[in-house]
Amino acid sequence: MRDDQPVLFFDSGVGGLSVLAPTRRLLPHAPIVYAADSAGFPYGTRTEAEIAARVPALLGRLVERYRPRLAVIACNTASTIALDAVRAALDLPVVGTVPAIKPAAALSRTRVIGVLGTDATVRQPYVDRLATEFAADCTILRHGSARLVALAEAALRGDAPPAHALREILAGLLDQPGGDRMDAVVLACTHFRLLDAALAAAAPRPLMLVDGGDGIARRIAHLTQGQGWPVASAQGAAVFTRVGDEERALAPALARFGLGAPELL
Ligand code: DGL
Predict the structure, then answer these.
(1) How far is CA 227 from CA 24, 70, 147, 162, 265, in A?
(2) Using CA atoms in the order 260, 99, 211, 246, what is the torsion angle rounded to 10 degrees?
(3) What is the pLDDT of residue 185?
(4) What is the CATH number of domain 7-97+214-264?
(5) Mean residue pLDDT across the chain
(6) Residues with CB under 6 A from ligand 1
(7) Residue 47 is assigned to a ligand binding site
(8) Which CATH fold would you assign to the domain 101-211?
(9) What is its EC number (predicted)?
(10) Distance (Å, rounded) from C-alpha 167 to C-alpha 207?
(11) Looking at residue 1, what is its pLDDT?
């Protein structure tokens, strides 16, 4: 293992930056390659078959090119559908991002938990299994929102999300039977954590917003324990499968996360 071997982060877009941020806080010298499948974005409205075909192939290319020490699928949609296939195809540790139902169940007092993800994630059997295993005594409400994904991408290009749009999205959970008792919401899409402050401000009452970013950072630190890192932190690379005006407009936000301007894979 060479000290300069990077940690690879993968998402359909900028959502994975919400997983990168806590990882950087724990491992400030880790070399980073952040890969976004902008040509395939958004994943949340795609079929299972499309994601299952796309994600392992793309990760294979990325691993061949960058030789990372570890890969992080910083996307709930890709992880709940393709994590097993990626692990089977790649010869390195792969950390997935799955809805943080377990920590939410530990926090909820009312035992009503919302899962806010993409349409593809909220319908996955993986979510049923998490609910059965970790929140069997809870009512789980689910809502998929492609709009919130788009608002998060726009926010990183500098367009603040309108509060009324966020309120409407939260109403997708709050207006369901039992929603009046919901006290915790799992941000089950990595994009959504990028808007957590705006979501909290738009919510009609306090809600605990729970995501898995800190847990994933701890997992990466654990899996790389004892490995060497470069002595100084360096700018990470941002690699996109499509680079057009929308991606170029992300450069200032990518810089805030310690990444260079988008390069084409
Ligand atoms: N960030 C992704 C997730 O965590 C998906 C966003 C999308 O491409 O729809 O699910």
Answers:
(1) 16, 12, 40, 44, 27
(2) 30
(3) 98
(4) 3.40.50.1860
(5) 98
(6) 11-13, 15, 41-44, 75-77, 118, 121, 149, 189-191
(7) no
(8) Rossmann fold (3.40.50)
(9) 5.1.1.3
(10) 13
(11) 85
Q: Which of 52, 75, 112, 119 is nearest to 212 (CA)?
A: 75
Mutation choice for ligand 1 from 191, 242, 246, CB with most ligand atoms inside 8 A: 191
Q: Can you give the pTM of this predicted structure?
A: 0.97
**Hey, which of 149, 153, 194 would you mutate to test ligand 1's pocket, going by the most ligand atoms within 8 Å of its Cβ?**
149
CA of 77 to the centre of ligand 1 (A): 6
- Which atom of ligand 1 approaches the CA of 97 most closely? 4
Strand partners, 220: none
CA nearest neighbour of 3 among 234, 215, 216: 234
Dump pLDDT digits (tens) for 214-239.
Answer: 999 999 999 999 999 999 989 999 99
How far is residue 4 CA from its own chain's centroid?
A: 24
The residue extents of the domains of the chain are 7-97+214-264, 101-211
Flag whether 76 is marked binding. yes
Q: Is the peptide bond between 42 and the residue preceding it cis, with omega within 30 degrees of 0?
A: yes
- 108: annotated binding-site residue? no
User: Residues in the chain with pLDDT < 70?
Assistant: none
Residue type, 15: G
pLDDT of residue 116: 98
What's the gap in Å between 190 CA and the centre of ligand 1?
6
Question: Is it true that 7-97+214-264 and 101-211 share their CATH fold?
Answer: yes
**44 is annotated as contributing to ligand binding:** yes
Q: Burial code of 89-120, b = ≥16 C-beta within 10 A, e = fewer?
A: ebeeebbbbbbbbbbbbeebeebbbbbbbbbb
